[in-house]
Amino acid sequence: LSASNMEPPGSNDPTCVALHPAGMTLAVGFKEKLVVFDVCAASLLPWRTVGAKGVTVAAFSTGGSFLAVGA
After folding, report:
1. Which of 10, 15, 41, 57 is deepest in the core (most CB within 10 A)?
2. Beta pairing, strands 16-19 & 57-60
């Protein structure tokens, strides 16, 4: 177990990344969740977290209105 967060090794490793076309939002998939970050803040802040198992692909639509994820 990792001493910093008591989770098994590899459980916090990103499985995919998608950047919003305007560059203001970053979606990162993990084994157990999808986290959307606001990259315009002074630091990288989680904006939304969605419980989603096995996210392996994420992509924003061309205009950035939609975020598609898949396992």
Report:
1. 15
2. unpaired
Alpha carbon 21 to its chain centroid, in Å, reads 15
How far CA 8 is from CA of 11, 30, 49, 68, in Å, comes to: 6, 13, 20, 28
Other beta carbons within 10 angstroms of residue 20's beta carbon come to: 16
pLDDT digits (tens, 9 = 90+) for 1-38: 344 444 555 668 899 999 999 999 999 999 999 999 99
- Using the structure block, give the residue that is written with the tokens 């098994």: 8
Locate 45 and state its tokens: 């802040």
Instruction: For residue 29, give Cα distances in angstroms to 1, 3, 14, 42.
Output: 21, 22, 6, 22
pTM for the model: 0.80
